Amino acid sequence: MTITLEQAQTIVRAALEHGTEQAFNPLTVAVLDPGGALVALGRQDGSGYLRPDLATGKAWGILGMRMTNRALAARAADSPELYTSIVALAGGKVVSVPGGVFIRDAEGTLLGAVGVSGDVSLNDEAAAVAGIAAAGLVSETGAED
């Protein structure tokens, strides 16, 4: 099972709206399927040109390692050599700060991940969570643990 285009577009739209409502800096939102393929991307006016890569990297890294950004950050702190190797093997497409969030259905099935970039990491994550909720899906950030 994978995220649908309609769900992904809802996540993008709602995450961007959340950022606007909260007066966040301009955001970029990327939604990926479980295999790491881009399904939808939205970039607000004024969002930097590296933001699509950062947003995608936040989502792609958690999918590739099947662990939350918080778990990736802990792994990087505990074993920097391993984390450096992971980043190198992934071609730099792994970002260990909040803003990458797993998307699950009500039964817990992994549907994909969303990455948000543009503001401070916790605000990026909040926008991702808001987008996922708007699509009627369940987010997993690692803060739940």
Count of helical stretches: 5
Write the element-wise H/E pattern from the N-terminal end onward: HEEHHHEEHE
Low-confidence region ranges: none
CATH superfamily: Haem-degrading domain
The CATH class, by name, is Alpha Beta
Total beta-strand segments: 5
How would you name the oligomeric state of the polypeptide chains in this document? single chain
Q: What name is given to the CATH topology?
A: Beta-Lactamase
Q: How would you describe this protein?
A:
The protein has 145 residues and is α+β, with helices and mostly antiparallel strands. It has a single domain (5-140), classed as Haem-degrading domain (Beta-Lactamase, 2-Layer Sandwich). Helix content is 46%, strand content 19%. The chain has five helices and five strands. The chain has helices at 5-21, 51-65, 69-78, 80-89, 121-134; strands spanning 28-32, 38-43, 100-104, 110-117, 138-140. The chain has a five-stranded antiparallel sheet with strand order 2-1-4-3-5, with helices on both faces. Strand 1 and strand 2 form a beta hairpin. The model has no long low-confidence stretch (mean pLDDT 94).
